[in-house]
Amino acid sequence: MSLKRAAETRTAMMWGVVSGAATIGVAELGAGIAQRSLPAGATASPLLAIGAEFVDRTPPWLKDWAVSTFGTGDKVALIVGIGLVLALLTAAIGVLAVRRAPAAILAWMALGLTGTLAVVSGPGNPVLLAAPTVLGALAGAAILLWGAARIGGLDESPQGTDGGQGKDPTRRRLLFGGVGITIVSALGIWGGHAIRSAEEVRRRIREAFPLPRASSTVAVPSAAEATVAGQTSYITPNTNFYRIDTALSVPAVDPTDWSLRVHGMVDREVTITMSDLLAEQHVEALVTLTCVSNQVGGYLAGNARWLGWPVRELLARAGVSPDADMVLSRSVDGWTAGTPLEALTDERNALLAVGMNGEPLPQQHGFPVRLVVPGLYGYVSATKWVKELKVTRFDADEGYWTPRGWSALGPIKIASRIDVPRAGNRIDAGEVMVAGAAWAQQRGIEGVEVRVDQGPWRTAELAGQPSEDAWRLWSYRWDASPGDHELQVRAVAGGGEVQTGESANPAPNGASGWHRIDLSVS
Ligand SMILES: Nc1nc2c(c(=O)[nH]1)N[C@H]1C(S)=C(S)[C@@H](COP(=O)(O)O)O[C@H]1N2
Ligand SMILES: [Mo]
User: Fold this and answer.
1) 291 CB near ligand 1 (under 6 Å)
2) Which domains does the chain have, with CATH numbers?
3) Model pTM greater than 0.70?
4) CB-CB neighbours of 359 under 10 Å
């Protein structure tokens, strides 16, 4: 009986540690996967977070001792130490799980909560950072309870008479299962760590990227900025910029390996390297990128100050055949866009962009080099991670989306959007500020009009317009009376074209129609 009891305790301890390993494995792998979307310095890894907490709270004498004992291995020693403490705690909880399940669950939750708190406690850390740890703790709890139920049954089982020598089938299954789970968990911890280190390396490479100085700069006058709370800001911060692409995992391009090849209908093939590109005269431009999939009133548009080298200079160097009418640009992951040659050779600032709002391009927005072409939807122009330009013809080549139901040509349609108030908002009668953004790249916005309940169109107030290739913010003072109301907006482009009220779906060449919101005023 006492032999059995000792064997049961050993198995339960082992199983507790296995469950703990599973928790850490899931959490660390999840943290590694999450790393890409985290701001610099943040981590979702419970091991690292607990380690960091520990370091912050270590008294100086202990720190000195650790450094003098473990030297530069003090960090590893710390993580190993945390692992040992965790092993002891989970072993104890394993025993508890067999004898008093509710108490074990409470203890497990307390442990999970400790990890969770360590992860989210950093300044400005989003609560979502805790997700991998919570998932891990839940997975570990499930494994713990599953095993505990079987260990508890060992005594009663007719085969449970070997005194815990590991020969009865249930105990053997637990042993093998435990070894298996431990191996998978170790792989998870290792994988999470590997992903995180790779991500760190990418981050550093991007941070070290030497943005060239612009030979001509643009400034955003305060007159162009938003005037109403909740209105879109003139410049879209990089972290808020919409992202659209087909890449399942963001391509990692090392700028020192990057090159761009121009070929096809050219007099001479040209290949430029990063140092060639950075040595050219870069210019700044304010350009609003827009996705063809944007719905009327939608948010798949963003405005940035781009820094890049005009594509026309590169094309001139290659010498473009007069018979060509398209440039097929290709990304490192094989995506393509077919851009009218003219849009890349005329006076507009079609750029090989390396900078976005004063920073190197974010990974997700095409680091190290992308195309930005004013006036064209992204799917026919804005190739991220670009590595090749093929000068060709529309009757010989097509971009990625063309055989998939989207038009070969994609000029951006005039659009306007109401940002505030938001549809469905309940608002008080009286003066209400209505505000939003409007765009007609290449022409600029000459006017914005608002109408209430299908009444006459009224002129909205326009903010400044430092670039005709970017959106223009607008506002309108509305004297709202109680009741249900409908607001609509339309824009007038430079040159006089009025935005059509005729509705069209995004496919095949962009949505049209007036943005409308319904409100209830009390
Ligand atoms: N390599 C690559 N570039 C791409 C795409 C893509 O799928 N792959 N999508 C395009 C589309 S459809 C749009 S709208 C813009 C979006 O750019 P953003 O993600 O920087 O906002 O990128 C374009 N460039
Ligand atoms: Mo797009």
Assistant:
1) yes
2) 3-197 (no CATH), 214-404 (3.90.420.10), 415-521 (2.60.40.650)
3) yes
4) 17
